[in-house]
Amino acid sequence: MKIAIDGPAGAGKSTVAKAVAQKLNLNYLDTGAMYRAAAYAMLKRGIEPSDRTAVLSALPSLSMEIVYDAGSQKVIADGEDVTPFIRTARISKGASDIAVIPEVRLKLVDLQRNAAQHYDIVMDGRDIGTYVLPDADIKFFITASPRERARRRFLELKETVPEADIDEIERDIIARDKTDSTREFAPLRQAEDAILVDTTDMNREQVIDFVSGLIAEKKRR
Ligand code: CDP
Ligand code: CDP
User: Fold this and answer.
1) Ligand 2: which residue has its CA nearest to atom 19?
2) Same topology for domains 1-24+120-221 and 27-119, yes or no?
3) What ranges do the domains of the chain cover?
4) Where residue 220 falls among pLDDT bands split at 50, 70, 90?
5) Beta-carbon-side half-sphere exposure of residue 26 (alpha carbons within 13 Å)
6) What is the number of the ligand 2 atom nearest to the C-alpha of 33?
7) Residues 168-177: contacts with CB within 8 Å, 24+ apart?
8) N or C: which end of the chain has fewer CB within 10 A?
9) How far away, in angstroms, is 11 Cα from ligand 1 center?
10) Ligand nearest to the CA of 50
11) Which positions bind ATP (predicted)?
12) What is the predicted pLDDT for the residue at 71?
């Protein structure tokens, strides 16, 4: 079974994808982590993720591997486990910048499709239903209002980043959604056959129950 989950930043994609993967005993691939890892690896080499020429010359030597440790995904980029370092605002922006470059996307999409060939999988990202797995068994487009998505990210951050500012988070999210949905190659877009789930007024459990219910129904048919 292949399940595609797409949507804008902070909509709850990975929360739902992880829960569904656990319930149905499927593998989970967080493709956003791969774009984040690519941005991190470039910055580490002193390259701005938006500098297309420099990124293209470094791309052939960028190595990336996804490994699972006690069920959780780790991304190894250039031989380093970058998982703990890729959730910052700087890397979010860098990921969105590097994700515009088609050659970067093709390299990562190759790895993603390869994983889907070998395992039953739930994948979340921006272009899974439209580009990476157009033949997925079931597709979801998960969204929520920008304010609600910023509120969720703010609650998540405030313990570790006391200076976190909800308005700034909302501005960053809106800017990233714009970059993601206006790029030319594989932009963020709802696939025609995706089920739209607006989670603005839904809590985690409600979203997980709703999505798992539809998947169970699909499996029965
Ligand atoms: O993967 P994506 O960026 O779409 O979002 P996420 O990381 O799954 O969720 C962002 C935050 O919102 C997490 O802290 C979730 O626990 C929370 N969340 C929520 O409060 N209500 C939901 N219906 C879904 C997620
Ligand atoms: O969790 P959040 O929604 O904040 O972001 P993410 O899913 O970790 O993705 C980070 C960035 O990677 C996004 O803003 C996109 O620019 C890019 N991305 C993409 O272009 N295609 C994907 N399939 C996944 C992520």
Assistant:
1) 126
2) yes
3) 1-24+120-221, 27-119
4) confident
5) 23
6) 8
7) 170/146, 172/89, 172/92, 172/93, 173/8, 173/9, 173/10, 173/146, 173/149, 174/146, 175/93, 176/9, 176/92, 176/93, 176/96, 177/8, 177/9, 177/146
8) C
9) 6
10) 2
11) 7-15
12) 78
Question: Which atom from ligand 2 is nearest to the alpha carbon of 10?
Answer: 3
**Nearest protein Cα to ligand 1, atom 22:** 204
Q: Supply the pTM of this predicted model.
A: 0.97
Q: Which atom of ligand 1 is nearest to the CA of 202?
A: 23
Residues of the chain with pLDDT > 90: what percent? Answer: 92
Spell out which residues line ligand 2, taking CB within 6 angstroms. 9-10, 31-33, 35-36, 92, 95-96, 99, 125-127, 176, 180
Question: The domain 1-24+120-221 belongs to what CATH superfamily?
Answer: P-loop containing nucleotide triphosphate hydrolases (3.40.50.300)
How much distance in Å is there from the Cα of 35 to the middle of ligand 1? Answer: 19
Tens of pLDDT, residue by residue over 160-201, are: 888 999 999 999 999 999 999 999 999 999 999 999 999 999
